[in-house]
Amino acid sequence: MIRLALVDDHLLVRSGFAQLLSLEADMRVVAQFASVPEVLKGLLPDMADVCLLDLSLPPESGLTLLGRLPEGVKALILSVQDGPAMVEKALHLGARGFISKRCQVEELLLAIRTIAAGGCYLPPALAANLLAPRQGLVCLTPREREVCELLAEGCDVRTVALRLGLSHKTVHVHRAHALDKLNVSNNVELAHRMQRES
After folding, report:
1. Domains along the chain?
2. Each residue of 97-128: pLDDT tens digit?
3. Measured distance between the N- and C-terminal CA atoms of the chain, rounded to whole angstroms
């Protein structure tokens, strides 16, 4: 029997996962938590085999739990924040697997069983993203990065031009080059990318 601890700050999400996992004959949810302090206080040694852990937990990130879970409890990150930088960070800190909340049920079950058996699990798409050469923020020129940081803060092109002493056309050129290098198509995607990798 695989004993599971669920960590997510949304009650409906936890309840949904608990209900879903209870249908599996080889799995049992033994604990549910809504925050990092709750886990540190309530997850005891030898209570669970696998901890399904969300990253967005008030008041701390779920990442802070990695390395602090009781011995023998393996962490499977289950999050919408599944960019390569976040996946790498979680694995570096000790997660045994990482899966998107957008995954299919079958993949979630496979990940849990793989990790419970002592393995590690990454969906093929996430593994490919980690292995593929990536154009990260490091590929931006200093000026492109300055422009991107201001755009990500919500400044419009006119404001960026004024603050950096550039023409509107020059700002548009730097923006276009940065969007192309980072493989994003608009300022919203740019802001998400900057936040994720900075």
Report:
1. 2-131 (3.40.50.2300), 137-197 (1.10.10.10)
2. 999 988 999 999 999 999 999 999 999 888 87
3. 41
